[in-house]
Amino acid sequence: MKGKSFSKMTWVAGVPALLMIFSACGDSGTGGTGSGELQVTTWGEDYIENNIPASAFEDGYSVKYAKFMIVLGNIKIADHSGDVGATMSGQKVFDMTLKGPHQVQDFKNIGAKRWDRVSIEVKPAGADTQAGNDIDAKDLALMKDNGYSFYVQGEMTKGQSSKTFSWGFSLSTEYKECQRAPEDGGEVGVSVPDGGTAVLQFTIHGDHLFYDDLASPDAVLRGDAIFSSDKDQDGKITMDELDSVDLSSLPENEYGTGGAPDVYTLADFVKALSRTVVHFQGEGHCHSHVED
Amino acid sequence: MLPKTSMVTLNINLVLFVLLMPVGRGETKTVSNSTPPVLKKFVKAEYPRSAVQDKVEGTVILELHVDKEGKVSRAIVIESVRDDVDRAAIEAARRFRFQPAMVKGIPVGSVVRYESSFVLPRDNKQTGERKKQRKKKTIGYGKAEAAGNTGKPKPGSDSDSIAEFTQVVKGRRPPRAASDWRIEVSGRLDPGTVSPGRLLAMAPGLHVAQHGGVGKAQRIFLRGFDAVHGQDLEINVEGIPVNEVSNIHAHGYADLNYLIPEVISSMRVIEGAYDPRQGDFAVAGSVWIDLGLKHRGLTAKAGGGSFGRARALIAWGPRGEPDATFAAAEYARGDGFGPARSWNRAAAIGQYVLKISPGTNLKLLATSYTGRFASAGVVKEEDYDNGIQGFYDTYDPHQGGLSVRHQAMAAVEHESNGSRAELAFHAGYRELRLRHDFTGFIFEYRPIDNPKERGRHLGDLTEQYQEGLTLGGYGSYAKEVRFRGGTYALEAGFRFRHDRADQSQKRLRAVDQEPYWDEIEAKLAVTDIGLYLDAEARPSSWLRIRGGVRFDTLSYIVNEPMEYYGKGNRRDAQGVHIGPKATLEFVPGHGLSVFLCYGNGFRSPYGIALSQGERTPFVTVHAGELGLRWRLGDWLDVSAAGFFTHVAEDLVFDHATGRYLYSGATSRAGTTVSAKLRPLDWLYAFLSGSYAYSVLDETGKLLPYTVPITFRAGMGVKRNLTVLWGHELSISARLIADVIGPRPLPYSEETNTVFLLSADFGLTWGDLELSAEAFNLLDTKWRDDEFAYVSNFHNNQETPSLVPDRHFTAGRPITIMAYLTWHVF
Amino acid sequence: MPGANRYRSHNLVLLSFFSLTCLFQTSCGDTGEQRTSFKMAVSAPDDMGTDFENDLGWKVVLDSASVVIGPIYFFSGEPLFSMSRLLDWLDPIPTAFAHPGHYVAGEALGQVLDQARIDLLSEMPQVLGTATGVTGLYNSARVYLKPAGDDTYSVLVTGTATKDQDHVSFKGELDVEIKLEGLPCGIHVEPGKAGGMVMFVDPRIWLKRVDFSTLAGPDQDGYMFFEKGTSNHSAFSRGVDNAGAFSFSWK
């Protein structure tokens, strides 16, 4: 009988196979399979590289940093489903007073997609910690020997008087789920374009050490309490001297501790503030997690 | 001239409103003042020897496509007997010659239904050796008498079928899946008026809510998808896309309110994404609407009803022109069923089909619409329970909107023996302003430059504004060939659209509705160019294979000038999506069809959420289905399908903040069942139900806001009563019951189950028609839409409630409308 | 991409399974969290007696300690610092902050809108009210201490403090509204969980850094009091502000 030119078996077997092939090649999802480059940088901005001018302070002080060293490490670029795009496991010390931005890590071949779980750690320098930018060998040794994660040295000035300070912090903090500021779009993480380069910057805000409140969004910069803590009048403000200033001796509307437990002295206060200097892409922030 | 037993019957176009016919896309209009095809040359089929030996007999039902020249271009087996017998019937039928059908003297293509009976010789009926065939008229409406030898219908034998047959302008495309329905709309005897939203809701499994007032796009639910205002349902009208790409209020916003229901001739609903012609937003499925005015002459219609509703309509279909040529204009208004619900709108649609040459038509379409409406917003469930807020009350009477749409299209269609081509271009302008207040006083004002104002709650009334232009076009070429006894068709086509939009979102002060905060300002330029290839093979009568692939290139330029302190944030992205689709249809016979389908579709992303250089600016959808279709004559049509859909990165719309969130991959599985019965020619019934189970892949939790269960049942009558004072008097009535099962809400709660009863009634006497429709006959207090989120309407800053609470929008109470329609000439 | 093909084998099977078992139950799965309510009680920590010694060597005996609390809100946002273990009064842990004002509360999960005066020296925890909300991880809390009803104060504490030869009968009173943000909570409220939440308020922390020798007074009732503007008032007020005075537990 005419018409039976295609055997039924061929169709029954062949068509599902065709469907499989088609479905496989159609699956492109939203992740993309391209790749690009991600540069992770850090920058201290004008406040650290130059100075914090008196106009920024509520009480007319100005601050110039001679050294502003921070240990950055353990960078992880991942997405919310757990896929890890790239990591940097070691630690690097950066002196933010040097002209930046400074490159922390350059991930040359990272998947071209949105990475919305970006994290970084600030931890005490260890034996393996390296210099991130052109810091002095002695400064690197200072960080390692003392186990500092963060160290500042500078000068506070008001009018004719000025005092120096040098403070080292050994706190460990993890900064995760970094997100841009709402006025910059509020983007969570970073998006790497296919065949292109994206830049991710951990911006260090040098003025945070001088805020006068731990919780209020209307905190301002103040210098008086810190300046006046120099008990022995030797022109150097030490961490111990800060620790001798009980917050209760300061005006009640200043140095509010918000919802923070056990912040009693000016040293406690500045230490708490030291964890807040790391920002993301300018004004953005990350969730900070205490590790020590 | 013709043997006594050679009858040709006419395919009766089922003119009733809710009778769903799976005949695929194409324009099927019924025309009056036309003549059916007449059989000129009849060829007797040869009874295959193998069939005689096997004692196989039966009636093969064929659908014959008669072209403008009277030749049979296609013969499709509707009901099969056996391979060899079917082939014999087809071979003979293909050699028939007709005088083609005519519309006002112009030959047109048509479809006829033909039954070829093969009866084995019986001792007392026929002589031994010669095979006999007997052709009889098809069973329709219970009338079995023959219509005469000449192939013309007997006048007055069936009032519904007087000179009615299907006129084919575009080629017919068979259904793609078991859940591929065509809803015939326009009909002289249909009562009442139907809004586009309720029209959509006629498709099985499709549920529509109207929470924003008459004038806002409907909220659509289908197959476990909360398509919001259209993000998962592709809607085209005459090929022009209705969905707005990246609309400021909702992605894929599909405002159907510009359509005048009386000029909708049919609607094809494809659930699933199995057709390569389906493009952006076809995640849950597509709806393709064709326009046409069935009644020729001038029609005037006016009516009114509950809550100050009034509507006036004028429609004109020039006699002698096809149904696709018409002009219509309407004005409608209403006070609304509660405070802050008034609305009014005006719309005009005109379409003109010009015959350029035999087989070639030029179609010109223009539409214009403006509608303004007030919206009552939500009521907090707690406030209603405590008697603080009435069921129909509003917290903020300043909500509402204005929607404007103007568009024009020019299309050329050409059909010749075995091939079909079309080319169209369209351009549209659209403006939308919406004001809504879902939360009261939650938004905290934090101006950077004015610390004193920080933390204040000035009111959450949000204004969203969008203005834009859409340019687009489409074209295709299809050809059918016969090869070695099988039929094969190939179609290639393209669709493109370019959308430009300026959009903004601001917060308005509660005291004086002045803007105090600019939340979003964006400009978009979006392009989507799609190419598709579609092939169909019918190697034997029991198997149909359809497959195709669609390529789409999407590109975006997004600019947000306010970001980065005024420096602006401009970004671009482009990507390609490849979407294969395939359908296998097995036709074992006895009116049965089994479908196995797979489709890979996509949805464009929300423009503002895009980042620079995204390589794949779209979301991939995988859909699969196994379905069954069973048709017995004209009186039974049953379909059942089980489906599965996976979306790679789904969008969840947060009404409270007006933001889109990518929720992650989602999966849905379910079934849809529908049945249509027509036990008597004047009585019909239908029921349909759907169930869908939808989860978020990452957590396995149920997706909130989807509709797991819908059920609809209805019955109707349509009958000529008598002839009164020289004019025919006929009546039609219909009763529909809808059940919408409890929908999951966030926090593991459920909405209330909704039960609604609606009815239509119509009385036609000559050129006059009196119709009435009642919605929500039982006047139940029902919740149209329910949400769970945080709100603070009483500006209670002392101890405000900050946890999410349930909110609802009130559904319409009993609404009755009555109309008088006069077919002037 | 590794994740993309997961759904084919894994989720497809799971989904079919769920579909079959859930065929006739629309709420077979859940959409995430559920609405819940539970009792909210407040008390002083279990280990508190009525006498203790503060940081400046004063031995203090409390006669009364009451606070007007309410409303309380619980949020999904992590507190201004995340702790690896709950705060332990005996072993204070250094604090950390993300940024002044950058505490992101996130979604409000639960709330107690009642206000009541709580006697912290009472034996049993006192019920503040019923908390309503949804289940989930209550990461942080916002607590208001403010005068309400007949009470003109938000915090009131009386007692005696002794150091060497000095014996002071004192009264500490604040009448301002105090809002404490981002207090660490970390309690996972589960559906159907029996019991309720207890917030511990430790009045000893309020007086931790107070030097009772320089109080003002005596006032008409014979108490020495904290005068506004003095460092003692500041120490007391900062003590009340100290998040270390608050902790949460489920009982």
Describe, in plain words, how this protein is organized in 3D.
The complex is a heterotrimer of chains A (292), B (825) and C (251). Chain A is built from six helices and 15 strands. Chain A has 292 residues and is an alpha+beta fold. Chain A has one domain. The longest helix of chain A has 19 residues. In chain A, 45% of the residues are buried. By secondary structure, chain C is mostly beta strands. The two termini of chain C are 46 Å apart. The chains are: A alpha+beta (292), B mainly beta (825), C mainly beta (251). The interface between A and B is large, with 41 and 48 residues.
Short summary:
The complex is a heterotrimer of chains A (292), B (825) and C (251). By secondary structure, chain A is an alpha+beta fold.
Q: Could you name the key traits of this structure?
A:
heterotrimer; A: 292 residues; alpha+beta; nine-stranded mixed β-sheet; four-stranded mixed β-sheet; disordered N terminus; C: 251 residues; mainly beta; 13-stranded mixed β-sheet; elongated
Topology:
The complex is a heterotrimer of chains A (292), B (825) and C (251).
Chain A: H1 8-26, E1 35-43, H2 45-49, E2 62-78, E3 84-95, E4 102-111, E5 114-115, E6 117-122, E7 130-131, H3 137-146, E8 150-158, E9 161-169, E10 173-179, E11 190-191, E12 197-204, H4 224-227, E13 236-237, H5 239-243, H6 266-274, E14 278-280, E15 285-290
Parallel strand pairs in A: 1-12, 3-7, 9-13
Antiparallel strand pairs in A: 1-4, 2-3, 2-6, 2-8, 5-11, 6-10, 8-9, 10-15, 12-14
Chain B: E1 9-10, E2 28-29, E3 34-35, E4 38-41, H1 49-53, E5 58-66, E6 72-79, H2 83-93, E7 97-99, E8 101-103, E9 106-119, E10 132-134, E11 167-168, E12 180-184, H3 196-200, E13 206-209, E14 219-222, E15 225-226, E16 233-237, E17 240-241, E18 243-244, E19 253-254, E20 264-271, E21 285-291, E22 297-305, E23 309-317, E24 326-334, E25 343-357, E26 360-374, E27 379-380, H4 381-385, E28 400-416, E29 419-436, E30 462-483, E31 486-508, E32 515-540, E33 543-560, E34 569-589, E35 592-603, E36 619-632, E37 636-654, E38 659-680, E39 683-696, E40 709-724, E41 727-740, E42 744-745, E43 749-750, E44 754-765, E45 768-775, E46 783-789, E47 805-810, E48 815-823
Parallel strand pairs in B: 16-21
Antiparallel strand pairs in B: 1-9, 2-11, 3-8, 4-7, 5-6, 5-9, 8-9, 9-10, 9-11, 12-20, 13-14, 14-15, 16-17, 18-19, 20-21, 22-23, 22-48, 23-24, 24-25, 25-26, 26-28, 27-47, 28-29, 29-30, 30-31, 31-32, 32-33, 33-34, 34-35, 35-36, 36-37, 37-38, 38-39, 39-40, 40-41, 41-44, 42-43, 44-45, 45-48, 46-47
Chain C: H1 6-21, E1 35-43, E2 51-53, E3 59-75, E4 108-112, E5 116-119, E6 126-134, E7 136-145, E8 155-163, E9 166-174, E10 178-189, E11 197-201, H2 203-206, E12 224-225, H3 231-241, E13 246-250
